Amino acid sequence: MPTYRALPDDPPPEPAAPKPSTNSPEPLPLDGSESAEEPGHHRNAKPIKTPQSRASIIFRGLVYELISVAVAAASFLGLLVLLRAYDNKPEPKWSPAPWAQRITLNTLVSIVSTVFRSCILFPVATCISQFGWIWMTNPGGRSLQDLTSYNSASGGLFGSLNLLWRLRFWHYASIGAAITLLGFVSGPFFQQSVDYDLRSVIDPAFTPSANAVAAYSWGEGIPGWNYAQDAFQVLPCNMTAAILAGLFAPDQTSPPKPVSNCPTGNCTWESFGTLSVNSKCVDISSHLEARVNKTEYYLETPGDALPQRTLNETGSNIINKTIEAFRCAVYFSAKEVLPRVENGVYSEEVLQEVTRPENVQFLDEGEKVGARRYFVYIHDSWDPLVFRLPGLPPNRRNNFTVPMTAFVPIYSQMMHDLQGTVLWGVGQKTETTPVLLNKADSVVQSIQNMADSVTNEMRRNESSTGPERAIQGHVWIQQQFVVVRWAWLALPASMLVLTSLFLAATIVETRRKDVGVWLSSPLVLFFNAHLDSSGKDVLSNANPKCLNTAEGNAQVAAGLKATIFRGSRTIDVVATEPAKAQESDVEMRPLRRSNEIDTSVGEGRKDLTSDHRRSDT
User: Fold this and answer.
1) Is 417 left (phi over 0), alpha (psi -120 to 50) or beta?
2) Which segments of 389-442 does DSSP mark as H helices, in order?
3) CB 11 within 8 A of CB 30
4) Signal peptide location in the record (predicted)?
């Protein structure tokens, strides 16, 4: 019967060369032993296999694993730097060539995820296999079937789960199995670390403008009118139309908007000053006095300059109607406004308003019917109204003027349109402006809409005749921004740390147990295994059909036990139960085999605990 012997770990010593002279030292044997002729001659010489050389052998054997961990760390740190650079920044897109498709940030994250996972799982799989050999250094031996569990764990998901279940998380190899499981779910964690938020940003490619007016002048050169009642005849038609459009707008709740240009529907401007027309209304319903007879009645406001309104209507229920009266003043002013367009809707915020011209005195009628600074004298000198806004930027004009040739015609037009008598009764069907205004839901809103319409027409007319006075603003567009969710990168970071510790533990345990750096080599058992007679009996009694499959080989291995002695490169393989090594014991059912594996693992756990205690002492 042939004899199975492992190859020696070190080559045999070469024969000693003859001494060239008495003074030259004799060369050392290659195996580090002392010379047989002179036992004490080289007693102080260091052996070749020092701890430093042993460590260098281990590092050389794991050089690819060390490089792989370094690549994983470099790729992960590079990803962190990249994400930090683009966090809360617009989504980057790179193009390797003009004709090529753009590379997005998600593509780079996916590439880094693949490289990281590959560089992590490679050294972990190798170290798990190495711990399979370290597992065999138990003095009592281990089941040879345990090697299949280690090899399966180094290659896939189910093998890692099986190894964790068998080791009860009580061995260094459990760390590698856990890292392998985490590696299969690390991809989504990388992808979830990058999110996108849709934000509004300024696009310098567009230059929308908000039209503002610095001064509104018309009618220059026209001689002054002696009577304001006829001055409306020189008012431009567009201004007359603006007054009527504001009064009779179909939707009184939606005031007219100034002219603006916003290509995207979202624009902003810096604040600027503009000339405007505003209104102020005071409720004077409490000052009305009703005089009623059977056929007609009229309302009178004592002491007011407004004309008396006479209402003629047949019936006795007219007195039960609620009568409202407002006193409204329409006046020029200068405003500092902050416009914006959001989702296509224009709005203006009034930052300040100056209603008092600096060269005109105001009436002061005390508490009489709320009349105060909104009513001005008409100057006989025909001086313009001058408004000045304080605090505007130096590049913004802060003085605004209204010539009397413009003020008087507007005043005349409003007096012509708004002054009159409203009558009810048979034959009173004239649709004059006072009648239409009386039918409005809100007189106050109608007057304010008229003022806004006049302001918009002033700004539109001025900016169309003087484009240099248009205020340039900013266009806002919707753009995707990168939002890094750093918490999702905790798992890859933990995997990198655990892999580094696992590799370090592999190096330390390989050196401490003095095991060969065999890793996942399938040739180790061919060259280093030594079967005794009991082990050979197990192989000879095995059913040849069992050796045709991996599962059958695992069944046969369950009847064998392997031991690696510290410092030896020989793997002694013996039968687990030599006295009961029969064919019926070799061909075990999976359930029975699992139970025997569980027992061996439990014993191995006790042996491992005892090994740890001995190493601690």
Assistant:
1) alpha
2) 404-418, 433-438
3) yes
4) none
Residues facing residue 401 across a β-bridge: 386
The Cα 68–Cα 357 span in angstroms is 80
CB 564 within 8 A of CB 142: no
The DSSP symbol for 426 reads T
* pLDDT tens column, 118-142: 999 999 999 998 988 888 888 878 8
Contacts of range 75-83, beta carbons closer than 8 Å, 24 or more positions apart: 75/112, 75/115, 75/116, 75/119, 76/112, 76/116, 76/492, 76/493, 76/496, 78/112, 79/108, 79/109, 79/112, 79/116, 79/190, 80/489, 82/108, 83/193, 83/194, 83/482, 83/484
The verdict on residue 613 lying in a domain is no
Question: Is residue 127 domain-resident?
Answer: yes
410 burial (CB, 10 Å; 0-12 / 13-18 / 19+) is: buried
The H or E element containing residue 341 is strand 326-342
Shared-domain flag, residues 430 and 551: no
What is the tens place of the pLDDT at every residue in 381-424? Answer: 567 888 888 888 777 778 888 877 777 788 788 877 777 666 65
Check whether residue 394 and residue 462 sit in a common domain: yes
Residues in the chain: 617
